[in-house]
Design brief:
CATH topology of the largest domain in chain B: Butyryl-CoA Dehydrogenase, subunit A, domain 3
Strand order of the largest sheet of chain B: 4-3-6-5
Shape of chain A: elongated
Distance between the termini of chain A: 37 Å
Number of strands of chain B: 7
Number of helices of chain A: 7
Low-confidence stretches of chain A: none
Radius of gyration of chain A: 22 Å
Largest interface: A-B, 77 and 85 residues
Oligomer: heterodimer
Mean pLDDT of chain B: 86
Radius of gyration of chain B: 23 Å
Number of strands of chain A: 7
Strand content of chain A: 5-15%
Shape of chain B: elongated
Largest sheet of chain A: 3 strands, antiparallel
Helix content of chain B: 40-55%
Number of domains of chain A: 2
Order of helices and strands of chain A: EEEEHEEHHHHEHH
Number of helices of chain B: 7
CATH architecture of the largest domain in chain B: Up-down Bundle
Low-confidence stretches of chain B: 1-5, 208-220
Strand order of the largest sheet of chain A: 6-5-7
Structural class of chain A: alpha+beta
Distance between the termini of chain B: 15 Å
Chain lengths: ~210, ~220
């Protein structure tokens, strides 16, 4: 094969070897064999991720401390925050299911936001974050395990199931959750692993020459 | 445009391997070493991919039965009420003319897991028995399966939300049952089966088809 490894690239989905080409910001480089997206350019990726992760961390608080729904039957009322959907299953003995809800609806989304903030903050201010590699691995392995949007659909289905038996009020927590989902979805769109790894490379090279 | 190589050749055939974590290309001789950019262990193909994928898929199939036969939750009002399974819950929704919601739950809880199990079986068989099939279709199938699989967690979240909300003592009360655990584990196992599956294996066994005429670069 011609060229050095720097001029070559392989497709992560089908392992096709090809020559690296330069692309314009709005062009994706697509694998000619399996049509996977090999690399692409995201304009202002780091700055957007920094802004989105801060917004997400702020929204995470009201989404988790205010009730998402409250229910009234015969004068009795009951409201719930996200955490309670895990807690009540735990009390009922379904420990594993409770744990999964806790992970997918609270812990993983929070971790992703914290990691994203760390990565984008370090790269934006050119800090040599010692944990950058671990943070990147962490974020990439957590992809797909944050399930806030599925949780939201679950809330909507619960509303429809209960609307004939009881009066339901939508709480501030649900609106915050919806806004948080917009932020996390956008941040996964702007998260460009190929580009961020490249930035980390440059960062380390710069740090080395400064020494 | 990337230059069209005379014939499709994988990185492994050409003496390279790709770090799956950061997508840096290394010489094949570094197999088992650590990537100098991201520190991950380098493997030309995910180790044990087929075994792990088969194992989780078979475990998911075995648990699929209890997940659908055992009750997932019980609704009690003034001492009366009966446990419901995934299917009876869907039938109840459809009976009450909640067609759209019934269909969403039907798709998320039954159609998607079943299709996912079938699709993973087809993929694993193709690789295991070196069947000659349309590889691009297989890759597309895998991408759909991987994307849609997590939506099966929907019913698990609904159970959590309902149990937390409907705790009004004697008036109305919902509790979760063991079917929910079995179902959650089925979803988890099918997701794991897809995650450990190395898509590059699909292409390793395929005959090298002639270079496609398709555009190599799409504009978004």
């Amino acid at each position: 094969m011609h060229g050095t490894p720097e001029q070559l690239i392989a497709c992560h989905e089908c392992d096709l070897l090809m020559e690296r080409v330069s692309n314009h910001p709005n062009e994706d480089v697509i694998c000619p064999r399996c049509h996977a997206r090999i690399y692409y350019t995201t304009v202002n990726s780091i700055e957007r991720l920094l802004a989105l992760s801060i917004a997400g961390l702020i929204l995470f608080i009201p989404a988790n401390i205010f009730p998402i729904l409250s229910l009234q039957v015969f004068g009795q009322s009951q409201s719930e925050i996200i955490f309670q959907s895990a807690l009540s299953l735990f009390d009922g003995g379904l420990v594993l299911v409770a744990l999964l809800i806790l992970l997918f609806a609270i812990v993983v989304p929070l971790f992703q936001l914290v990691i994203l903030f760390y990565i984008s903050f370090s790269l934006h201010y050119h800090r040599t974050g010692r944990l950058l590699r671990q943070a990147m691995h962490g974020y990439q392995h957590l992809r797909g395990w944050g399930m806030l949007e599925i949780f939201l659909l679950g809330v909507l289905i619960s509303i429809i199931k209960l609307k004939d038996i009881a009066d339901l009020d939508i709480g501030l927590g649900l609106y915050s959750l919806a806004a948080l989902i917009v932020v996390t979805t956008l941040s996964s769109v702007f998260f460009n692993p190929h580009q961020i790894w490249h930035e980390i490379d440059l960062n380390r090279q710069k740090a080395r020459t400064n020494e | 445009m990337s230059n069209q190589l005379p014939r499709f050749k994988s990185a492994r055939e050409s003496g390279y391997l790709l770090c799956i974590d950061c997508e840096k290309l290394h010489p094949l001789s570094l197999e088992g070493e650590h990537c100098d950019r991201c520190g991950a262990r380098l493997h030309s193909r995910v180790p044990n991919s087929m075994n792990l994928s088969w194992a989780s898929l078979i475990a998911a199939v075995l648990l699929f039965l209890p997940a659908n036969l055992l009750p997932i939750m019980t609704f009690k009002s003034f001492g009366q009420g009966e446990p419901s399974t995934i299917l009876s819950g869907i039938i109840h929704l459809l009976d009450q003319d909640m067609l759209l919601i019934g269909l969403i739950v039907l798709i998320a809880s039954i159609v998607v897991p079943v299709l996912k199990i079938i699709a993973m079986t087809i993929l694993l068989c193709t690789v295991q028995f070196r069947l000659q099939t349309n590889l691009r279709q297989k890759t597309l199938m895998f991408r759909i399966v991987e994307w849609i699989g997590r939506w099966s967690m929907l019913d698990v979240f609904v159970i959590g939300i309902l149990v937390a909300l409907v705790q009004l003592g004697n008036i109305a009360h919902i509790e979760g049952n063991d079917g929910a655990t079995a179902f959650a584990v089925v979803v988890l196992l099918t997701m794991f089966s897809a995650i450990v599956f190395d898509t590059r294996l699909i292409w390793d066994n395929g005959v090298t088809d002639s270079p496609a005429n398709d555009d190599q670069k799409d504009t978004q």
